[in-house]
Amino acid sequence: MFIQQNISLKHRNTFGIDAYAKEFVEISKVEELVVLVGSFNLTERKFLVIGGGSNILITKDFDGMVIKNTIKGIEKIKEDTDFVWVKSMAGEVWHEFVLYCIGNGYAGLENLSLIPGYVGAAPMQNIGAYGAEIKDTFDALEALEIESGEIISFTNEQCKFGYRESIFKNEAKGKYIIVSVTFKLSKNPKLNISYGAIQQMLEKNGVSNPSIKDVSDAVIAIRKSKLPDPLILGNAGSFFKNPEISEAQFLKLKSQFPQIVGYPVASGNIKLAAGWLIEQCGWKGKQVGNTGAHKDQALVLVNYGGATGNEIWSLAMDIQKSVQEKFGVTINPEVNIV
């Protein structure tokens, strides 16, 4: 464990923002993390934990310690006739973990293929795509409690999962560092292919009786076709969450905008497609300085090269304002602003 001073984070966040960390340390073992927390009193020190840096927008130099979690390891911890419980350490690359599960015939994560980032960040955001979310297969996680230095376990219920939300983005924010995540995966796949784009891609590929790998391949193809590769064009995926509004407000909007995209959710509200709202405000493909909304997906804000975090944040606020003015709907960032 070596603590470095004044380190650039440009290649440690997928937006490619060239900000600096006052201190930087990479942790590859749980024991190192325990020592770090015990030695540096993180309850009194400004710190930021990152994995792949795929869901953050850094708006300024970080005057504190950036901790990169690269703790690796995957193991099957138990199984029964129908299910297998697989534990992944937080520093594993999410997509590689998904492919490991698919390769072993463990079903449940195939719809979440090619999502950038590390496993440790997945429950924080309750990541989701194409009709699936982490909470659907999540069993438990282990996290280091900053104050006590102890490893604490959290069940699915204790994580308080919501739409791109968990306890770790709210009341437990900054109090824990996730160490490992365990998933309960099926040996007998019940495929979730109701999402229209998956059906279309499977048909295009000539697949009539899909396996979990077929579904994963379809999701990968869809994502590659409409989302820019962060290694080529800096971005953090979907920048805004899809907003929820009341049914009454939705019906009123639909009378004004017949093509508006929305679907009912468990709360009784209607969830709108933020990308559609942004596109209707004229942002899709629009470039502002070194930033812009991507030409294929308005929900993805991009760094065309040399943009600062504040420039991207300014663009985001302009987009947010225009959606509010046109539709009377507030769209909130999914990306964490640092």
Question: What features would you describe in this structure?
Answer:
By secondary structure, the chain is α+β, with helices and mostly antiparallel strands. 25% of the residues lie in helices and 27% in strands. The strands form six sheets. Strands 6-7-12-10-11 form a five-stranded antiparallel beta sheet. Strands 1-2-5-3 form a four-stranded mixed beta sheet. 41% of the residues are buried. The model has no long low-confidence stretch (mean pLDDT 92).
Layout of secondary structure:
Elements: E1 4-8, E2 20-27, H1 30-40, E3 47-50, E4 56-57, E5 62-69, E6 74-79, E7 83-89, H2 94-103, H3 122-125, E8 128-129, E9 132-133, E10 138-145, E11 151-155, E12 176-186, H4 196-204, H5 212-226, E13 234-238, E14 244-245, H6 247-256, E15 262-264, E16 270-272, H7 274-280, E17 287-288, E18 291-293, E19 300-303, H8 309-327, E20 336-337
Parallel strand pairs: 2-5, 3-5, 4-20
Antiparallel strand pairs: 1-2, 6-7, 7-12, 8-9, 10-11, 10-12, 13-19, 14-16, 15-16, 17-18, 18-19
Helix pairs in contact: 4-5
Could you tell me the radius of gyration in angstroms?
20 Å
Task: Give the percentage of residues in beta strands.
Answer: 25-35%
Q: How many beta-strand runs? A: 20
State the secondary-structure class: alpha+beta
Characteristic key phrases:
25% helix, single chain, globular, Uridine Diphospho-n-acetylenolpyruvylglucosamine Reductase, domain 1, Uridine Diphospho-n-acetylenolpyruvylglucosamine Reductase, domain 3, alpha+beta, four-stranded mixed beta sheet, Uridine Diphospho-n-acetylenolpyruvylglucosamine Reductase, domain 2, 3 domains
